[in-house]
Amino acid sequence: MRYSSAQFTHTGAVRDHNEDAYLSFPEDGLWVVADGMGGHQAGEVASQLICDTVSLERQRSGSSMSANELEKAIHLANQRIRKYGDEQLPGATLGSTMVALKITDDRYKILWIGDSRAYLLRESKLKRLSKDHSQVADLVEQGVLSEEEAESHPLANVITRALGVEAEPLIDSVEGKVMPGDRFLLCTDGISREFEREELEQFLMEEPIEDINQALRHAALVKGCRDNITSIIVQVEPPVGLAGLADSARDSTLPLGQWNL
User: Fold this and answer.
1) How far is CA 46 from the centre of its chain?
2) How does pLDDT run across 57-67, given as a tens digit for each residue?
3) Is there a contact between 233 and 204 (Cβ–Cβ < 8 Å)?
4) Nearest-angstrom CA–CA distance, 112 and 175
5) Phi, psi of 129 (to 5 degrees)
6) What's the pTM value of the predicted model, to 2 decimals?
7) Which of 20, 90, 238, 245 is deepest in the core (most CB within 10 A)?
8) Cα separation, 120 vs 129, whole angstroms
């Protein structure tokens, strides 16, 4: 399998600093998105510590980090965030949500904590792979709220898990088989709160992925997004022999410029 990716991070339309961070190594099938919390400096440090730690551990593994090694690196990042908080920002809230994707051969694994999300577009259908660790997600599971009500609930931004909060964080994961043509979206809640699943699905069916990310950023800013926004789109390329067929399929799609953003 071969992979390509497009990514961006932006402060958004309201905030004056960016607490998001991301990591992208398509050559190794490795991507991470982190959304820091705790205000200026604290949130930025937490999210960057996650990316820096994973990047360093990748180098130590010889650029062939396994999913298990990635999970160990995430736990190491948790320790580093807690240590930094104790030493440099005593009494401050320091933490970060995180979602990561590791593809090895024909298998993918998603790891996450908090409300940064992972989606998979397959055969023109978008499926959310991650489940938010938040108060409203718990209410949805209990049947108190519907998915639609949860997205606009006033407590939608109250998370129940994050790196840096607990000594032994509970990180969820899901895995499955990778198919040629698959597209993964990793994003912070700044993106997922601005767009319904159907809107994201429509974006992700366009070409190319670099233009999709530009359109996502533009549309979020036009909406007046109140949070930082970060997105990584990962494209699973077809085998070389099928590239021509894939190009033919792309020719039949509507150019992104014709969508009303």
Assistant:
1) 16
2) 999 988 689 99
3) yes
4) 12
5) -90, -30
6) 0.89
7) 20
8) 7
